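Side project, low priority. Logging it here so it doesn't get lost.
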Amino acid sequence: MNGSPELVCPAGNLPALKTAVDEGANAVYMGFKDITNARRFAGLNFTPERAREGIDYAHRQGCRVFCAINTYPQNDGWPLWTRAVDQAADLGVDALILADLGLLEYASRRHPDLPRHLSVQGSATSAEALHFYHRHFDIRRAVLPRVLSLDQVKQLAAASPVALEVFGFGSLCIMVEGRCYLSSYLTGESPNTHGACSPAAHVRWEEQDGGLSSRLNGVLIDRYGPGEQAGYPTLCKGRFRVDDELYHAIEEPTSLNTLELLPELQALGIAAVKIEGRQRSPAYVREVTRVWRQALDRLSRTPSTFQPDPAWQRALGNLSEGTTTTLGAYERRWK
């Protein structure tokens, strides 16, 4: 740790896991190939065999592995979620990332010695909520929702009974941590129930008049002109005509980037910074992990004079949604 927060990086698949480990992640987080984790996309996630290989690889290099089982179990699928918890325990992960109260209770009863982290999907935004999860389920860490200002994070850090993890970089969305049903409105599946926003089976791309259109289950999400960069069609980031104006009516594509806040986060005693992006490529994981490893190492050496390197900001900007970054709610002045 060397006095700075630890770096927790995404591992959407085995190549991404190994890349994050090689580039200096302190921990990686992964999920299984089913609806128990909130990033269920084709080509992503782990079979038990691949998970075991990845855990062995990480552990040999001193990197910990967290398993995200952070969707909300459905009434007719409870055994699937408990089986995932048991499977993660058998594989030797270093912590479970959980959100559902029933699953937290199951994990704490069946595997009391396996550390439990409260997922960002748990939406704990008050000290009382953190005390509740700690008292009933003995959580070791909580991932804070991306809706809190820095002042609110400061208040929680002063009163929290557990270590805190905050998001440092990655795409932003209106899924206020496990509470978005927009995708389900069009496809019947949402991130917090089936692990996928805009499931690929419902996505269609159409070339028209030299441009490109994207549809989700038949609904037009966006049209792109020749040469215009196209984004994955999610309902929240589509462009729609409202009062004769065409624009991103719900949310602009952008990414969170908190490099400049690192000294303040360190001073608050934040235990870990999380990088979003299990759905992104190993190349993305390599570049983001490299930048954040360098930043945290510099923070550790020179905390009082730390400044983000302009080259880091340029690299992260190129990997950001819409090539724009923001401090998001961290700099929010209203409450």
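Brief comment: The first strand starts at residue 6 and ends at 10.
Revisit when time allows.
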